[in-house]
Amino acid sequence: MPKPPTPPTVARRPRADARKNRERILEVAREAFAQHGPEAALDDIARRAQIGPGTLYRHFPTRDALIEAVFRSQVEKLTAAGERYAATMPPLQALRSWMVVFIDYVAGKTLILRAMDAVPGGSTRMIEGSRGPIHGTFRGLVQCAIDSGELQAGTDPDDMIRALIGVFHTTSLPGWESSARRIVDILIEGSRTRS
Q1: Confidence bin at 66 (pLDDT 50/70/90)
Q2: What does R_g of the chain's alpha carbons equal in angstroms?
Q3: How far apart are CA 4 and CA 13, in angstroms?
């Protein structure tokens, strides 16, 4: 007699306290890596996150795993913001708000770049891996603004992202963030539909 099929296993979501611990670890680690680079003490991160070292290592068994998780969580927050804005704001406002958050993301990434470069493959590998989700979010927001009639039909999202990326090459200069915000306004104003 054949055995009945085994029911598919369903991945359990982490308990709420485990999720909170993980989020707190990532936030504290982001601050520590920004301040101390890859040399940030993991035991100090655990203490500041108000958890034991065992809990830290259970979530992130190596320093490299923690650094990568910090970066990945920032990318996830950025793409989640795009979805939230698209669902709750008019399209052009959603696009502008997300572009400003994107500037904040780049500023945060710049702060942890030294730690990212300590991981095998360095920051380049991690940044390349994040390109798809970020570009997808950006293109979706631009397309919504085009579909709504707020942006010109010929607006190319890649032109807008290239202009912003150009500004990001000046992150070592004082005032780059305010310059990037002004460029966001220029890009949106120059792409608006004219009546």
Answers
A1: very high
A2: 20
A3: 27
Q: Which residues contact 110 (CB under 8 A, 6 or more apart)?
A: 171
With respect to CATH, is domain 15-61 assigned 1.10.10.60?
yes
- pTM of the full structure: 0.81
Name, in order, each residue with C-beta under 8 angstroms of 72's C-beta and a sequence gap of 6 or more: 126, 130
For residue 16, report the phi and psi dihedrals to the nearest 5 degrees.
-60, -40
CA-CA distances (angstroms) from residue 92 to 85, 87, 109, 156, 191?
10, 12, 26, 15, 10
Spans of all domains in the chain: 15-61, 74-191
Question: 71 vs 177, which has greater pLDDT?
Answer: 71
123: left (phi over 0), alpha (psi -120 to 50) or beta: alpha
The Cα-based distances of 8 to 5, 11, 103, 110 in angstroms read 9, 10, 42, 43
CATH superfamily of 74-191: Tetracycline Repressor, domain 2 (1.10.357.10)
Closest CA to 31 of 45, 47, 17, 11: 45
Q: How many residues does the chain have?
A: 195
Quick check: 81 and 151 in contact, CB under 8 A?
no
DSSP state for residue 151 in the 8-state scheme: B
CA angle 136, 75, 23 (to 5 degrees): 145
